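Each field is set out underneath.
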Amino acid sequence: MSFEKVEGSFINCLTELGIKKGDILYVSSDIKTLLFNMATEYGIKSKSGRNEALHELINTFQSAVGCEGTLLFPVFSWDWCRGKGFDIKNTKSEVGTLQNWVLENRNDFTRTHHPIYSFMVWGKDADYLCSLDNQDAWSHKSPFYFLQTHEGKQLLFNIESYQGLTFGHYIEQEISVPYRHPKYFFGKYVDENGVEETRMYSMYVRDMDFESGCGIHNDWLIDNGVAKRMIWEDNAMTIVDLPKSYPLIKDDMIKNRGKNTLTFSGGELDWNAKQTLPFEVKGIEI
């Protein structure tokens, strides 16, 4: 193979998007188009060939931010919420093929500790991020607060914001939307040393009788000057400046009832409504 055939154009695309040495870059992706092009355009059809190409892809991301930068790949899983527990080395991501590939193939990355919203991290801030002991998924002790306060950028690789901008849920918690509430989950947690214990982690969950979701589109962020898009090898790459997007998304939720940021079915955002529940607790079967 060789990803090397297109590596130069990929680096140029990242540079044009404003990604530079020292950046904190959070990468969310759907790589189906990339894998299809590998097979059809470059004849990369074997598992070993795909692995080589994906190693080169990750290496290129590392080169783009440099050792003074930081990379984060989301490896989110909701098994903890389903009562299935969490194994930091083995619980798979539910948010993308590339993320699981990093989990299984890149020993230079380390996983953060929250069993629902964990990241594979590499670079300058990896040790700090893995030292975080946030019980709450989106608290001020979480990676999402770190991204907001440290000029974090999110690269949306072939996905729309409503599919991958979890930062929007962090903002929902920041402003205490009335249709969500804290839920505390107890479960069996296996750490990096193979030690199993019962732990509690929480998440600001949506009321089950209130259907809502993230409604942010990349074009809206681009039109408002907090994101930029480029096309590389048929792949749409959108970079979002997370600190700059924060007040934009927050103001839309508060002042515009989430017209551009939230979706509702059978209801709407009512700031006069009270939370249906102050909190919930989900226990563990012994």
Summary: The mean pLDDT is 94. The CA atoms of residues 110 and 127 lie 8 Å apart. The two ends are 51 Å apart (CA to CA).
